């Protein structure tokens, strides 16, 4: 039996999550540490900010992608980070997607956006990412289309490749308290409790992940788009597609009975719930990425 690596879904939150070391950032660091320890060689990620029109799916293939500027973050925190893109893997991903019937192509003019390089920066504090590629999502926001992309790439889990979705479990930019970050550069203050819809939808998301495995996980995640509080929790669909991508890669018949886990969580801007999830076990102990309370202490403007 080949080793099968877990899949992750990360809620990346606002750009300010790159500035401060939060519980979520400490968790991303821990996932990166485990990736290195457990022999991960490459990463495939779908974010929330690179979308393609029509039927097309693009795969990052720029050997030196520029990083798009990040609001509220000192450029010194990310400009020198070595993204280490993997062009060979990009061609492999296009091949797998094409074999599955997708209209997939390489994008040599790709520019990297904070939703993906923020995660890599925290995962690899040494300053250089593991080789990786980014897969675009599709602007029609069809849940099944995105699950099929994940399913098509599932074999990579058995080829030392970590599959990650970067989006948001509760992510509605129209319902955040932006005043606190605009006036005080403070994205983490919670002056009052989050609104009930943010709590409720976050719990529903967590229940779908932790109470389902295999194809039931896929069905549950797709069904969340019909949840009465979905539109409260997702102002637009773009930050939900990578969750469907993740369960596409983690919800096959072979995944039935293999547990999925809720990880660290950081509330931000009152109503944004940046919760993290692991699908399936790491091959070696610890099989579940620990939520380390000590390392999860918030360090504002961590260097
Ligand atoms: Fe985002």
TrEMBL record:
Residues passing through the membrane, by range: none
Domain of life: Eukaryota
Domain Extradiol ring-cleavage dioxygenase class III enzyme subunit B: residue ranges: 9-252
InterPro entries, per database record: Extradiol_dOase_DODA (IPR014436), Xdiol_dOase_suB (IPR004183)
Molecular function per GO: ferrous iron binding; oxidoreductase activity, acting on single donors with incorporation of molecular oxygen, incorporation of two atoms of oxygen; zinc ion binding
UniProt keywords, alphabetically: Metal-binding, Oxidoreductase, Zinc
Cofactors: Zn(2+)
Similarity field: Belongs to the DODA-type extradiol aromatic ring-opening dioxygenase family.
Protein name: Extradiol ring-cleavage dioxygenase class III enzyme subunit B domain-containing protein
Organism: Naganishia liquefaciens
């Amino acid at each position: 039996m080949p080793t099968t690596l877990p899949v992750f879904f990360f809620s990346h939150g606002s750009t300010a999550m790159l500035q401060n070391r939060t519980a979520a950032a400490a968790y991303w660091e821990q996932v990166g540490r485990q990736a290195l320890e457990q022999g991960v060689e490459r990463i495939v990620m779908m974010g929330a900010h690179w979308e393609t029109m029509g039927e097309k799916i693009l795969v990052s293939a720029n050997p030196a992608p520029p990083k798009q500027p990040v609001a509220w973050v000192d450029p010194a925190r990310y400009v020198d980070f070595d993204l280490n893109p993997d062009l060979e893997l990009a061609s492999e991903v296009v091949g797998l997607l094409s074999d599955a019937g997708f209209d997939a192509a390489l994008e040599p003019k790709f520019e990297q956006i904070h939703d993906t390089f923020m995660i890599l920066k925290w995962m690899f504090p040494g300053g250089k990412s593991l080789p990786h590629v980014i897969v675009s999502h599709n602007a029609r926001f069809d849940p099944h289309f995105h699950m099929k992309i994940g399913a098509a790439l599932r074999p990579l889990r058995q080829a030392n490749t970590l599959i990650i979705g970067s989006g948001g479990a509760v992510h509605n930019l129209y319902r955040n308290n932006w005043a606190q970050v605009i006036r005080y550069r403070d994205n983490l203050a919670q002056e009052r409790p989050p609104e009930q819809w943010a709590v409720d939808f976050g719990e529903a998301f967590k229940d779908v992940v932790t109470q389902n495995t295999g194809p039931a996980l896929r069905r549950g995640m797709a069904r969340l788009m019909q949840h009465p509080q979905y539109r409260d929790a997702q102002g637009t669909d773009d930050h939900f597609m990578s969750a469907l991508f993740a369960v596409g890669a983690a919800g096959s018949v072979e995944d039935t009975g293999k547990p999925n886990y809720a990880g660290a969580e950081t509330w931000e801007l009152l109503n944004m719930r940046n919760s993290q999830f692991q699908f399936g076990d790491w091959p070696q102990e610890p099989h579940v990425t620990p939520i380390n309370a000590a390392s999860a202490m918030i360090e504002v403007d961590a260097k």
